[in-house]
Design goal:
88 residues; 3 helices
């Protein structure tokens, strides 16, 4: 089921950094961190981590995994953009 080159596994890998960023900054630190003057910064760092994972999976010729990571990155970026517009 969990082969190395798997779309579902790529989506799972792609959602780990944003969910981890949300858990650390929103739940554990309760928005009292130094970076919270820019509330989207932790999520943008998570997206950059996704791009690093995307680069490594593309170099390893794991095309389906790369596609999954890109789908998750796009979904998280779109979600952050939409929430930043409607949170005003």
């Amino acid at each position: 089921m969990f082969k190395k080159n798997n779309l579902f596994l790529g989506i799972l890998y792609g959602f780990i950094p944003p969910v981890l960023a949300w858990f650390i900054f929103a739940v554990l630190l309760k928005n009292d961190a130094i970076m919270m003057d820019k509330p989207a910064a932790p999520y943008l760092i998570a997206i950059l981590l996704n791009f690093v994972m995307l680069r490594f999976s593309a170099r390893a010729h794991l095309d389906k995994t790369s596609n999954g990571i890109m789908i998750a990155t796009f979904a998280c970026t779109l979600l952050i953009f939409v929430l930043k517009i409607y949170a005003r």
